[in-house]
Design a protein that fits this description.
Length: 230
């Protein structure tokens, strides 16, 4: 199973480029433009590793580090354009697992990612328990990245899984297309609603008995979508 990386950086072009390369390297990558957004994503789907910029709008990376460590216990690699040695010293003293200064070679970043993940998950280690999300006959396990429907396992792509988790987190309530784009694809995809429509259709084909007349994943015209228990 691919490891889940949460990339937090306020540079949209950098996020999109790095996330693409991480995906191509076999990782499942979610992105956030701020620490606050990243923490919401982490509560929805716990990451295996956080790539965290220090200089963020709102809560900065140094403050966010404490929350990622205390609430989620996940390893953090700082990414920053700051070159002062003080930042590196402070970052490591606060407990960051690694520190990389921009610009960097992608292959070097991947080697750091692999090393930190190995240290965080030594042989024989177990994954911390995560609460299951149940919506009617759908059961989602964010930690194991599995979904069962009426007790039978169904296969979802990483995007479909994130989409389902986003809707399940607000089961019974309408989730706007903009919210889905931000949570599943990242803020840089705002305005590209077509990608949501396509993935909703694909998801319905896997969880609905009759995808053309959905009973679980409902459209609320002009607003968004709602996942309901049946």
């Amino acid at each position: 199973m691919s490891r889940n990386i949460l990339l937090v950086d306020d540079d949209a072009l950098f996020r999109r480029s790095l996330a693409f390369n991480l995906d191509q390297s076999g990782y499942q990558t979610n992105t956030a433009a701020s620490a606050e957004e990243a923490l919401e994503l982490a509560r929805l789907n716990r990451p295996d590793l956080v790539l965290l910029d220090i200089g963020l709008p709102g809560m900065d990376g140094l403050d966010a580090l404490h929350i990622f460590q205390n609430e989620f216990g996940v390893p953090v690699i700082f990414l920053t354009a700051r070159r002062r040695e003080l930042d590196e010293i402070v970052g490591m003293e606060l407990g960051a697992d690694d520190y990389i200064t921009k610009p960097f070679n992608f292959d070097i970043l991947v080697s750091h990612v692999k090393a930190v993940l190995r240290r965080a998950s030594p042989p024989g280690a177990t994954t911390p328990p995560t609460n299951l999300i149940t919506v009617g006959d759908l059961v989602i396990d964010p930690a194991a990245h599995t979904v069962t429907l009426e007790g039978k396992s169904i296969e979802l792509t990483p995007r479909e899984f994130d989409l389902l988790c986003t809707l399940a987190a607000d089961a019974g309530r309408v989730v706007s297309v903009d919210h889905i784009l931000t949570r599943v694809w990242g803020a840089e995809y705002m305005g590209e609603s077509q990608v949501v429509y396509v993935h909703i259709r694909w998801l319905r084909e896997k969880i609905e008995k009759d995808p053309t007349h959905p009973k679980k994943l409902l459209t609320v015209r002009g607003i968004g979508y709602k996942l309901v228990a049946t």
